[in-house]
Design a protein that fits this description.
Distance between the termini: 77 Å
Shape: globular
Radius of gyration: 22 Å
Number of helices: 6
Number of strands: 5
Helix content: 25-40%
Oligomer: single chain
Largest sheet: 5 strands, antiparallel
Number of domains: 2
Structural class: alpha+beta
Strand content: 15-25%
């Protein structure tokens, strides 16, 4: 008698409409709603003139993308939010194809609008969750910058800086006190420009 050593072919599918694959999304999305993230995006982000209705329901699309990022997926896998019982918990979920059209409609100005909404949301989140103490005490501020390489001459906001590569120059601001852990309070992109001495000069986004 010959014993086979080849494993049997198996297949598993997540097809139960009542199961929740990512229940940890629920408290995170609820916290974002309490701190006004959807309202801020709807107020500040306006994709005027975008084709195929890409600018419609920017708040719902942004939250769908945020949920996909929290679930650990890529832009190609955002349909995981529409599996199982997640549509019963979250209203206004969008398909990956719709989210892709939404992201491709963004210009440099639209990114600045989104940054403005993110700054206001960070202030609301800090006040709601008590991330940064409100009392009089010493606050240490750390500002870090990085150039993310991008490809293609049509990329808006990209430039050649001190790294000698075409990229987007973004900054992250972290604060720390004796009573709290380091907290990221601001982040955003900036245009990198050359001075006559061929040294980069950063023009930061205004609130």
């Amino acid at each position: 008698m010959k014993v086979p050593h080849t494993a049997a072919a198996t297949f598993a599918a997540f097809d139960d409409p009542n199961l929740i694959a990512h229940p940890g999304l629920l408290p995170r999305i609820r916290l974002a709603e309490r701190c006004g993230r959807p309202a801020l995006i709807a107020q500040k982000v306006h994709l005027v003139g975008a084709a195929d209705g890409a600018g419609a329901a920017a708040d719902a699309k942004a939250l769908s993308i945020m949920g996909g990022i929290l679930a650990g997926t890529s832009i190609d896998d955002l349909d995981v939010l529409r599996h199982g019982g997640l549509p019963k918990l979250f209203g206004g979920l969008r398909a990956p194809s719709t989210l892709g059209i939404f992201l491709r409609a963004f210009t440099w100005g639209h990114v600045r609008q989104l940054e403005s909404a993110a700054r206001a949301f960070t202030c609301n989140l800090a006040a709601h969750a008590g991330l940064v103490p409100a009392g009089d005490e010493v606050v240490f501020v750390d500002i870090d910058s990085k150039v993310k390489q991008v490809y293609g001459p049509a990329k808006q906001g990209a430039s050649f800086g001190y790294t000698k590569v075409r990229g987007l120059h973004f900054q992250i601001v972290t604060v720390k006190t004796a009573a709290c852990a380091p907290v990221i309070v601001a982040r955003g992109c900036a245009r990198a420009r050359r001075t006559p001495a061929r040294e980069p000069r950063v023009c930061c986004a205004r609130p």
